[in-house]
Design brief:
The chain is an all-alpha fold. The chain has helices at residues 3-17, 21-39, 49-72, 76-90, 99-115, 124-135, 141-153.
Length: 154
């Protein structure tokens, strides 16, 4: 078992013992998503820490989107619970990049793409190929794409 997955298991056990309903239900759902990912496909396999992190990030994103939908529907209590679950899952993810840090990485990638001979809006794919490995897990794809588009547009 990977160290991140075992940490989730240990935290789940502690949450159950402490009768922390929010934490225990959130961790149960996350561990279920991890297990589902492990047994999905042709053969069952154990996920690496990076893959477990991706599943946690996906689950956290689901919580944020659900909270937004509940908020728009006028269900503030449900929205608050989803946000609380998202915050709980964010604790298991690496620290997110600030806008300034992300901007600096994107600017450097744009310069690299220019040096390679691609400029303007058509360079989007080339820049994203450079940026994505550098920000993996520390910034959402949509946020990265928006920063790249803004910089390429001028």
């Amino acid at each position: 078992m990977t160290s991140l997955k075992s940490k989730l298991q240990e935290d789940l056990t502690a949450a159950i013992r402490a009768r922390d309903e929010l934490r225990s239900s959130t961790l149960r759902l996350t561990l279920t998503a991890i297990t589902k990912e492990e047994v999905g496909g042709k053969t069952a396999r154990e996920l690496s820490d990076d893959e477990v992190q991706k599943v946690i990030a996906k689950e956290a994103k689901k919580r944020r989107e659900a909270a937004e939908a509940f908020q728009q529907g006028g269900r503030t209590e449900s929205a608050e619970r989803e946000l609380a679950e998202g915050v709980l899952l964010d604790a298991y993810l690496p620290q997110q990049l600030s806008d300034d840090e992300l901007g600096a990485i994107v600017a450097q990638a744009v310069e690299e793409a220019k040096a390679a001979g691609t400029e303007g809006p058509r360079a989007m794919g080339a820049v994203m190929k450079i940026v994505n490995p550098k920000v993996a897990g520390r910034a959402e794809g949509g946020r990265v794409a928006a920063a790249v588009k803004q910089l390429l547009a001028g």
